[in-house]
Target: DUF4879 domain-containing protein
Amino acid sequence: MIIVRSVAAAALVAAIAFLSLTGCTAEMRSFVSSQVHAAFDPPLDAIPQPRIVSGGTTVAAKQSTYCWGNRGCADYAGGYAMAASAPAAVVHAGAIIAISFDAQPAPAHMDAAQYFESGAAAVLPLNGGRFQAPSKPGLYYYGISAYWSSGGDTSAVFAIRVV
Model:
């Protein structure tokens, strides 16, 4: 990757020098520069985001820790502290909450946890990417982690208000 970037930089410098010596306009130099960068600087890989749905309600998730492609790795404060800042979606008591990812291939494995204000966490069993909302009304906090066999992983947190 370092060699490719060095070649790209050399090509950019050569192209701009050539255009400057031949009297090209600033607009032309800017255009050539943008084209060289577009060709040699790959876009960052998109981190897969969970799709969380209960009935017709989409539950918003906040990105947490991940290791993904050319984005590398990032660690976030997880658990209750992060989930408590997520917007809570209203779901009905006992409703099914489905978690999936649009990314292909699908994750090889998913883990879920419920977070508590005390800092404790409980493993939440998933059945086909689904779990049942609590039957008691209240505010609940969760985390989901997904792992791909290709080596990437991502986590997200979310909150629900059971009514």
Remarks:
- The domain at 50-162 is CATH 2.60.40 (Immunoglobulin-like).
- The helical segments are 2-21, 26-40, 79-83.
